[in-house]
Amino acid sequence: MKTISVSSSTLNGSNVSTLPSNKLSNTVIVTPTAQNNGDVSTQNLISNVIKKAITSALRYGGDYLGKLLSKLSPSAGNYVTKYSGKIADFLDSITNWQENTIATGLVGIGVPPAEAYEIVKYIVWLAGL
Predict the structure, then answer these.
(1) CA separation for the pair 22, 107 (Å, rounded)
(2) Which residues are registered as beta bridge partners of 5?
(3) 2/44 Cα distance (integer angstroms)
(4) What is the pLDDT of residues 15-61, one digit of tens each?
(5) Beta-bridge mates of residue 18
(6) What angle do CA 97, 58, 52 make, to 5 degrees?
(7) In the predicted model, what is the mean pLDDT of residues 94-104?
(8) Among 39, 64, 94, 123, which residue has the fewest nearby CB atoms (within 10 Å)?
């Protein structure tokens, strides 16, 4: 009896075995295997879509977001209006959307610390993080 196994890495996640058969000289059985190296989870996909929506809203509707935020915090709204493009560029450049990381970046582009933390509070709230 002859059995051949090929590793899943050579066949894109499928295991192949060749087994003897009475009617055919060889029968090939392909069994897909589950892989989780590089797969995108649903939660990760939703999070990325929300992040992209926030950066796009800042980039293309920064004036409106600034006006909306000024209803809650006038000074933070003014800084969102003034720096919306730079805030969007900064958010696109980072992968770790934690409050301290974003606030530090906002301070780095010219937003005062108090307003930076106020803006970050709303960004993180919108992102659901």
Answers:
(1) 74
(2) 17
(3) 44
(4) 444 445 455 444 444 444 445 555 556 667 777 888 898 999 999 99
(5) 4, 28
(6) 50
(7) 89
(8) 39
Residue 48's closest CA among 92, 4, 87, 15?
A: 92
The amino acid at residue 94 is I
Q: What three-state secondary structure class fits 14?
A: strand
d(CA 115, CA 112) in angstroms, rounded, equals 6
Six token digits for residue 26 = 């060889």
**β-bridge mates for residue 95, sequence order:** none
pLDDT in tens, 65-79: 889 988 988 999 999
Two structure tokens written together for 50: 């929300």
Residue 57's nearest CA partner among 91, 26, 95 is 91
pTM exceeding 0.85: no
In degrees, rounded to 5, the angle at the alpha carbon of residue 100 between the alpha carbons of residues 49 and 104 is 100
Can you give the length of the chain in residues?
A: 129
Give the Cα separation of 87 and 116 in Å (integer). 10
